[in-house]
Amino acid sequence: QVQLLESGGGSVHAGESLRLSCVVSGTISSTSAMNWYRQAPGKPRELVALMTPSGITDVLDAVRGRFTMSRDNDKTSLYLQMNNLKPQDTAVYYCNIGGRNGAWGRGTQVTVSS
Questions:
Q1: Which of 31, 22, 30, 29 is nearest to 3 (CA)?
Q2: Which residues, other chains included, contact 50 with Cβ-Cβ below 8 Å and sequence gap of 6+?
Q3: How many Cβ atoms are within 10 Å of 36's Cβ, its own excluded?
Q4: How does pLDDT run across 5-35, given as a tens digit for each residue?
């Protein structure tokens, strides 16, 4: 069973940076994408960044140029580097493997004040 544990959230001012981490335990499929989602109050959960099994990444247009996703070579940790944060980035951020029907972490809160 795959378990995910996020960390690195916090409260920052607009323009500052945070780096989220996600520790992965258990055996994951070699064909599973690794993702970061977020959910703001009253809004649906949205995909922020993804990484294909081959390591290709993409991000949500709203965060392009500010957020970067990476992982360790052994796929035991995922990262989301978030620069130039904006108040609209405020949300709970979730680590995910395998898409919406896959494994989820419990989330880490990111709060950005203006």
A1: 22
A2: 33, 34, 35, 36, 57, 58, 59, 69
A3: 26
A4: 999 999 999 999 999 999 999 988 888 899 9
